[in-house]
Structures are given as C-alpha cells and as structure tokens.
Amino acid sequence: MSRPIIALDFPDQAAVKTFLAQFPQEMRLYAKVGMELFYSAGPDIVRFLVAAGHDVFLDLKLHDIPHTVEQSMRVLAGLGVRLTNVHAAGGVAMMQAAQAGLIAGTPAGKLPPQLIAVTQLTSTSEQQMQQEQLVNTSLINSVTHLAQLTQQAGLAGVVCSALEAQQIKQATSPDFLCITPGIRLATNRTDDQQRVVTPTAAATYGSDRLVVGRPITQAADPVSAYRQIKQLWEAAHDQQ
Ligand SMILES: O=C(O)c1cc(=O)[nH]c(=O)n1[C@@H]1O[C@H](COP(=O)(O)O)[C@@H](O)[C@H]1O
C-alpha cells in the first residue's frame, strides 16, 4: 500500500535529522525535499536521505525554457531520487525536454526518476485562477487540460488536489498518476491550502499517493500523526 510522502519542509539538515530521529530507525519513509530544504542543504540532503534507505520525491517544480530544464534534469537525475517534478504550465516541449534530460542523466543500469507535472497548485482557488491568471474556464477544466498535456508529453502523471483525481483519470488513463498534496485531517488548519481533502476522501477519489507536510511535521507527535494518516488511507482502500 502506498506510503504517504512526508514533505520535509525544514530550514536545514539539522532540523531534518531531529525530525527523523523520532521515527523507528528501521522505518523506511517516502520523503519530499522541496525548495526550502534544497536551497539550504543542497544535493547533499538528498544523498543523505537516499543513503539512509528512504525514497525521495525531489520537488523543485522546474519551469523554464526547455534547454535550461533539460540540462538541470540531467544533473538532478544523478541524485538517485524516485520522483521529481516540473510545472505543466511550462508546456509540452519543456516537459519533453525534462524527460529527455532525466533519461540522459541517469547512470547506466539505474532507472530514471518518474517525472510528474504540477497542474494548478493546491493553494490556488478557482476564483484566483480566473482573476489572476486570466484563465477563462473552470478549475477542473484547467487541471484536466494540463493533465492531458502532461500525458501527451509522455510523463507519468500529475500533482493535483485529490478533488480532481477521478476526472483526471477519466480524461487520461487509470494508470496516470495523481499525486495529491493539500491533505488535512478534519481537525487540522488549512493554512495556505485552498483545495484540501482528508486522507479518507483522497483514497475514495482515486489519489495514488498523499503528500503531507504540516499535519505531520507540525504535529505535537509527528509519528502518531503519520501513522494515523497512513491508517486512514489504508482503511479507505480496504473498504473499496
Ligand atoms: O508539488 C508539490 O509537492 C505541491 C504541489 C501543490 O500543488 N501543492 C502543494 O502543497 N505541494 C507541496 O506539498 C506540500 C504540502 O505541505 P502541507 O500543506 O504542509 O501539507 C508542500 O511541500 C508543497 O510545496
């Protein structure tokens, strides 16, 4: 059963080590390294996590001209991560270049990381999207359109809200990955997220994997919060 990805949104490696020390040593986690941690701790933090046996989602959301993205992905491909991402809004050519860079940069005998694309950030509401991006359609139309472009570019799936997973799979294919942040327990604050979903509902809607940050990292007992979210997710799957 797919483990939730824990977003390690911490300021430095010391904070990551303090956080991880709370988990049983043998527990292999699926960790996300995002911009804050990567900009502070650099590629070494990824190497550290991989060497400790954890799976890593490197979330740098690349969005630039195709050549720049391709060359950057060549570098990132050597780090041994399992999953990485770009912004779908960068376009089909950029996404194809990202994929090509990952394949070219992967050491011989290793599998390239899976590549997914962010559709509309889960912190974006429909109203914001329409007013600020001048996107003259519904949020679900925009998200499914970006997912179709992502599939056309040959990527493995998208980052989206679980609210959209079902329609994305209908518009693409059942095996097209929907990796879903914006996860909150009913008792959690929503913070800056707009399109939030509980772990149970996310499983029901067809999310392939949860991405969870603050509900775990800021919890009084992070290990219990992690276990609770994982258990809710697994229980909802068992019911299906
Ligand atoms: O690509 C992502 O991981 C991502 C995409 C998105 O649309 N929304 C989103 O929240 N994320 C990331 O998922 C994590 C969610 O964190 P929490 O809101 O603290 O659970 C953060 O690290 C975000 O950078």
Word description of this protein:
This protein has 240 residues and is of the alpha/beta class. It has one domain: TIM Barrel, CATH 3.20.20. Helix content is 44%, strand content 15%. It contains eleven helices and eight strands. An eight-stranded parallel beta barrel has the order 1-2-3-4-5-6-7-8, surrounded by six helices. Strand 7, helix 9 and strand 8 form a beta-alpha-beta unit. Helix 4 runs parallel beside helix 5. The longest helix has 17 residues, at 222-238. The radius of gyration is 17 Å and the shape is globular. The mean pLDDT is 97. It binds orotidine-5'-monophosphate. Substrate binds at residues 9, 32, 59-68, 122, 184, 193, 213-214. GO terms for molecular function: orotidine-5'-phosphate decarboxylase activity.
Short description:
Belongs to the OMP decarboxylase family. Type 1 subfamily. By secondary structure, the chain is an alpha/beta fold. It has helices spanning 13-20, 35-41, 43-51, 66-76, 92-105, 126-132, 139-152, 165-171, 199-205, 214-217, 222-238; strands at residues 5-7, 30-33, 55-62, 83-87, 114-118, 157-159, 177-180, 209-212.
* CATH topology tier name: TIM Barrel
User: Biggest sheet: strands side by side, in what order?
Assistant: 1-2-3-4-5-6-7-8
| Total helical elements | 11
> What share of residues is helical?
40-55%
Roughly how many Å apart are the termini? Answer: 13 Å
Strand elements, count:
8
Average of per-residue pLDDT values? 97
EC number: 4.1.1.23
Function: Catalyzes the decarboxylation of orotidine 5'-monophosphate (OMP) to uridine 5'-monophosphate (UMP).
Protein name: Orotidine 5'-phosphate decarboxylase
Binding site for substrate: 9, 32, 59-68, 122, 184, 193, 213-214
